[in-house]
Amino acid sequence: MAFYENISLEKGMYANREKSLTAVLEELDPSANYIGTELEGLDAFSRQLKRFDIKVSGAASDKVEKFFQTTDSAALFPEYVSRAVHQGIAEADVLSNIVATKTAITGMDYRSITSTPSEEDKSLLVVNEGAFIPETKVSTQENLVKLKKRGRMLVSSYEALRYQRLDLFTVTLKQIGAYIARAQLKDAVDVLLNGDGNANPCEGITAKEAGKLSYSDLVALWAALSPYELNTILAPTAAMQKLLETTELKDSSAGQTFHGTGKMVTPLGANLIHTQAIDSDIIIGMDKNCALEMVVAGDVITDYDKLIDRQLERAAITSIAGFAKIYKDAAKKLTY
Is residue 288 in a domain? Predict the structure, then answer.
């Protein structure tokens, strides 16, 4: 009998909120031990699914009741839920395109750092021999990062789901993940525009002609961000339509890329991201490498007691995250 088949599974493995069940299982049963075997490529959780012959995807996926055949296999169910929610978050992910860094914390209080360099600081003047070296001051923010809990309550009974295929149930769980991702994107955009509570709202410029977006407006946005790089533009649907209608974005190369992939190429080389989290008369230009910090308090959390002992009923799936500005001037808004 393989070692992974001897591991005793129980809900106490979920007690450490800083580690997922997969991480706990990897410590007990490292994947490195399976290099060169038929199980290479499977993580510790996937090996446990194989142990109980539980198929969670594909046309031959098992029914939900397969998880509850034994007390050991039932302990795998909350991790299956979390992983499916993570898949939904990953598939709807936009945050990775606008967040410079992600900080994981263990408590609920976090104070970010900030630096507000002057124009002289940015220029890095020549320092003569023996002269004083100019300083860049880095300090903690006055106010804590505001963390928000986002999630959904999974309401059902074991009897209602026991005969449902796991691949169908996964679709529902992935949608919960997508809801969380979109809500967190909205929180991130709010911080970009209005600040994180430390007197750092987004400054901006106004288009030359009200109600219209032109190539010269984009150039002005690029110039306003200097010396930061304009590498990301966030735009709502109405703004996307106006950008697509600009003459400079109708050249053959841009047209072929848009028609072939659905992705728009801007003349300024910025990554253009479509989002409904912005008002229709604003676009945001930013340097994604230094504008925004994401702070997370733990991973996606599932109410494992109810999922195991009570077989669903009402189980919470939540994620706690907040956002902080790193450099205030690394994001600018264009109002048209």
Answer: yes
Maximum Cα–Cα distance for the chain, whole Å? 79
Is residue 321 included in any domain, yes or no? Answer: yes
Query: Residues near 97 by Cβ (< 8 Å), separated by ≥ 6?
Result: 232, 271, 273, 288
Lowest mean pLDDT among 65-74, 84-93, 150-159, 288-297: 150-159
Q: Write the pLDDT tens digit of every residue in 82-107.
A: 999 999 999 999 999 999 999 999 88
What tokens were used for 219? Answer: 């150039």
Question: Per the domain annotation, does 139 fall within a domain?
Answer: no
Q: Residue 241 belongs to what domain range?
A: 195-294+326-335
Q: Are residues 182 and 229 in the same domain?
A: no
Over residues 236-261, the mean pLDDT reads 72
Q: How far is it, in rounded angstroms, from Cα 229 to Cα 75?
A: 48
- The pTM (predicted TM-score) of the whole model is 0.86
- The number of folded domains in the chain is 2
With tokens 């410079």, the residue in question is 100
